[in-house]
Design a protein that fits this description.
The structure is a homotetramer of 123-residue chains. Chain A has 123 residues and is mostly helical. The first copy, chain A, is 78% helix and 0% strand. The radius of gyration of chain A is 15 Å and the shape is elongated. Chain A binds chain B through residues 3, 40-41, 44, 47-48, 51-52, 55, 58-59, 62-66, 69-70, 72-73, 76-77, 79-80, 83-84, 87, 121-123, and chain B through 3, 40-41, 44, 47-48, 51-52, 55, 58-59, 62-66, 69-70, 72-73, 76-77, 79-80, 83-84, 87, 121-123.
């Protein structure tokens, strides 16, 4: 049975991909801003989000049965990142864009996490 | 408050790192064996395990608050990989070693997933 | 001096990102096709391209001084992948699309590799 | 022709793996130290080294023909990281250990980059 990526999943892959990219760019941008923007907590939140978004996209692109689990964690990481970027943005354009992308990605990952059946491991 | 990696977490990082490596090596080895070893399912199981192990190790090395979630998914991916490698190993030395490493990694990831408190996102 | 991503680099980041995604999807698709498509060589070529494209994009998004070096290797990996996909495509739609994306990515990575000055390490 | 990982390559894989881990840990540690340790430059140097080390290890574990190229860039990234960690270490234990690991990894990557023949792309 071939792996079919439907439009819903395709959209989620796209969101994860874009979210990864804006998080990596924002992490660097925030190091430049300094202060709380370059704190361990804020940098973790951005790097965590970037890394799990990349994994999430790859699991869906491979058609892996476990993708709903990874999407579940990804939704959580995106939500945290959105909140922390909003908290610190203060009108910064890139951080605002990052927060919005994280929200959108969290929403589509939550849908992927919820609606999929995960086959038992033993075959 | 600095991030302290205790011996339990250090061991889990080590397991994830080694598990990643043996899965990448085994995936290639299985492509060479062909047949069901190079099926989408078996390759997914190996590549999924490799990728989430790497993420899991990085989350712990960074001291990210979300590491128990990633470890939880990692434990599941390792368990699946162990089972599928055992199913197909038939005396193959590398596949047997891969299955054992996955079991060990699953066990330590389950412990990390269970015993950690995840702070609420809002600070 | 803040990191500025100009339109040329932005385009290259985009190509690397899309190239990564289509290579991961094609690798899985080729496992389903079997035969030479699931050979070690063809799978390596696709996975190598996917991994170095992701690294290349991240180096540019971070504004890392070493990005021209990574782009140089990336161009080579993309070129190999394009050639191998064309060799095996035989009218397959996804493989043809993968080959085209790899060509486009190789071209923009070559430009990034060529036109950048790498500062000496000692500061 | 099966892929054989000889002891030289096995050692290089090991160095890349350990170097990746110590760089991720040190990057976080340096964010905690603040000042120049959390500058964009120092963080890039650490994250670049971590990411290309991981890619380098995977290329060797897969037995990819292009691994000498990735090892070449990896040697350069390790060298830069070693120098920058030494420059800023000032007796810090983790940074000193990171610098040493980077030196060792650079040395073995240079050997892998030099001694391998890369087959032409066309087959």
């Amino acid at each position: 049975m071939p792996h079919k990526i439907d439009s819903k999943m395709r959209e989620c892959i796209d969101n994860c991909t874009q979210c990864h990219n804006v998080c990596v760019e924002t992490a660097n941008h925030c190091l430049g801003l300094g202060g709380e923007h370059s704190s361990q907590h804020h940098q973790h939140v951005l790097l965590d989000c970037a890394q799990i978004c990349a994994a999430s996209a790859d699991f869906m692109l491979r058609g892996s049965e476990l993708h709903p689990r990874v999407c579940g964690v990804c939704a959580e990481a995106c939500e945290r990142c959105a909140q922390d970027c909003e908290r610190l943005a203060g009108g910064d354009e890139l951080m605002t864009r990052c927060a919005e992308m994280c929200r959108r990605c969290a929403e589509s990952c939550r849908q992927m996490a919820a609606c999929r059946f995960i086959a038992p491991t033993i075959r």
